[in-house]
Write a structure and sequence with these properties.
With 250 residues, the chain is mainly α. The protein has one domain. The chain has helices at residues 5-14, 19-24, 30-33, 41-44, 48-58, 64-72, 82-90, 94-108, 112-124, 126-135, 137-149, 152-163, 167-178, 190-201, 212-225, 230-249. The protein is globular, with a radius of gyration of 17 Å. The chain starts with a helix and ends with a helix. The mean pLDDT is 93.
Length: 250
């Protein structure tokens, strides 16, 4: 899942949207997408369950942060389906996989091997984002409002206390990662999503240098290639995440 997909799955799982859920649904991607991170993978990407216990005891109004993290994670959430998205769309289609990988390498200014392995699923999920952008306008409005209302200062403070990190270091990372999301207009168009995408991918170890024009064309191409599959994919992911996270959200 990507910019819109992760919060949408979290929203459909929890049944409501607020600024904490919107931010929480992307917190796992601080590792590895933040250029400098004080968090380890197991802490921030897979640490939602432990974080939820902390929030229920100390900040029950902010549990959306942890619910969003859990719905994103590999253990319970949408990231479990990163290998599946490639299987669902590209099994038996090696020439298409190669063609898309070459376009990703060109678009992100990375080598073909990285495009075929580490980056392919990220770009494939862009089809879900475009599907939601075209079909779920009310949700996009709610998501944009939630991000605009997010208090990154308070969120950084809570994260630093829960994970025993220095607040100034956490805030630097949180600001770097989430400030692009706080511009409401960027969530309403493919070009806006691409601007967020460019900034986020630049934080990866490979320091992707995304060409925005090429990214827009590639996103539209991916969406069109599999246009009749996105709703079924979303339904499968949401049903599975709901089942796995019921003990946290129910």
């Amino acid at each position: 899942m990507n910019i819109i997909g992760h919060p949408y799955v979290a929203f459909k799982t929890w049944g409501k949207m607020n600024s904490y859920l919107a931010v929480g649904s992307h917190l796992p991607d601080i590792f590895p997408f933040a250029s400098v991170s004080v968090f380890k993978f197991d802490e921030i990407h897979e640490g939602g369950e432990k974080f939820l216990t902390f929030l229920r005891k100390n900040h029950p109004d902010k549990i959306g942060l942890a619910i969003g993290m859990i719905c994103h994670s590999v253990k319970y959430g949408a990231d479990r389906f990163n290998p599946e998205i490639e299987n669902w769309l590209l099994t038996g289609r090696p020439e298409l996989k190669r063609s898309l990988s070459e376009k990703i390498a060109d678009c992100s200014s990375i080598d073909l091997k990285t495009a075929e392995t580490a980056r392919l699923h990220n770009y494939l999920w862009s089809g879900v984002d475009l599907y939601l952008l075209k079909n779920k306008k009310n949700f996009i409005n709610d998501l944009a409002k939630a991000h605009s209302e997010a208090n990154l200062e308070k969120i950084s403070d809570v994260l630093s206390k829960a994970f025993h990190k220095k607040k100034d270091e956490v805030k630097t990372i949180v600001d770097q990662f989430f400030n692009p999301f706080k511009s409401e207009n960027l969530l309403f168009s493919v070009s806006g999503l691409t601007r967020i995408w460019k900034q986020v991918l630049a934080g990866l170890p490979e320091k992707d240098n995304v060409n925005e024009k090429k990214a827009i064309l590639l996103f539209e191409n991916i969406y069109s290639l599999f246009e009749d599959q996105w709703q079924d994919i979303l339904t499968t992911v949401i049903n599975e995440v709901r089942a796995k996270t019921k003990k946290f959200t129910g």
